[in-house]
Write a structure and sequence with these properties.
The complex is a heterodimer. Chain A is of the alpha+beta class. Helix content of chain A is 37%, strand content 27%. In chain A, strand 4 and strand 5 form a beta hairpin. Chain A starts with a strand and ends with a helix. A six-stranded mixed beta sheet of chain B has the order 1-2-3-4-5-6, sandwiched between helices. In chain B, a hairpin with a 2-residue loop joins strand 2 and strand 3. Classes of the chains: A alpha+beta, B alpha/beta.
């Protein structure tokens, strides 16, 4: 599934809802659905606030399902991140004046099984998140 | 103060408390309007404490945490407190993970929160 959306805040809800709808065929629990929605929401919000910093741009959301594993990638072609490690530190934010909590990456990490961030200053950022659905029912 | 209602929330003044009944999913898009209106009311209505009601909120991300913290900072210097009420399981997980309950009190209902705000701080129902 590939979704290309404009970098406007109205699309945050749209993006997470589409991903949630796409993964319902795996019969996720309400909790798993909420986890994925939160992670997608954080990633798309980052593209809008940081990647494009209010300018117009396109955000690509790709979701793949392999067995019980979902992989969601969220990509922007915005400013990129100089220091990814620093950006990922909990509570670190470059936009405290916008009341950003600095918890975006921490939430993505907490709610998904795996998070990888690729970024190049001037070119953009891609986050890839993976999560196995149905783990809780089995155990 | 008249009861104010817009898409994101309904606002009500109860004594010296501003109760914000959030009526939609709380993300970056939704916090913008909420922030503006609540800050205006905090100033114009001499609000001391803020209560956020989550009865109708099924989803929240870290933008919601930033919005709550931001409003708390507006009242904390004048001895104000902030509370959340009617928090469902999904939203509760976000609060727990963010550590929000270290500084924001949680009550079952708006009535309980309003009452607690009038008493001396006893720590509330911290979970």
């Amino acid at each position: 599934m590939k979704l290309i959306i404009d970098s406007v805040s109205e699309n945050e809800a749209f993006a997470r809802t589409v991903v949630a709808a796409y993964i319902t065929k795996l019969d996720p629990t309400l909790e798993e659905l909420a986890d994925v929605k939160t992670a997608v929401s954080e990633a798309v919000t980052n593209c809008i606030i940081h990647g494009y910093a209010g300018r117009h741009g396109e955000i690509e959301v790709v979701c793949k399902i392999k067995g019980k594993l979902i992989e969601v990638s969220v990509t922007d072609h915005g400013v990129g991140i100089e220091d990814v490690e620093k950006a990922m530190q909990p509570l670190y934010t470059t936009k405290p004046e916008w009341e950003r909590s600095g918890m975006g990456f921490a939430f993505m990490e907490a709610f998904m099984d795996e998070l990888t961030v690729h970024s190049k200053p001037g070119e953009g950022t891609q986050v890839v998140m993976k999560k196995e659905i149905g783990k809780e029912q089995e155990s | 103060m008249e009861q104010t209602l817009n898409r994101e929330a309904a606002y009500e003044k109860r004594g010296n408390c501003l109760v914000i009944y959030i009526t939609d999913d709380l993300d970056h898009h939704m916090v913008t309007g909420l922030r503006e209106i609540s800050d205006r009311l905090i100033r114009s209505e001499q609000i001391k404490h803020i209560i956020f009601d989550f009865t109708d909120v099924g989803f929240m991300d870290s933008s919601g945490i930033g919005m709550i913290m931001g409003r708390y900072k507006k009242v904390m210097f004048s001895g104000g407190r902030a509370a959340v009420t009617n928090v469902g399981e999904i939203v509760n997980r976000i609060f727990v993970l963010s550590g929000l309950y270290q500084i924001i009190e949680k009550y079952s209902t708006v009535e309980e929160a309003v009452e607690a705000m009038q008493k001396k701080r006893s720590g509330g129902e911290k979970k």
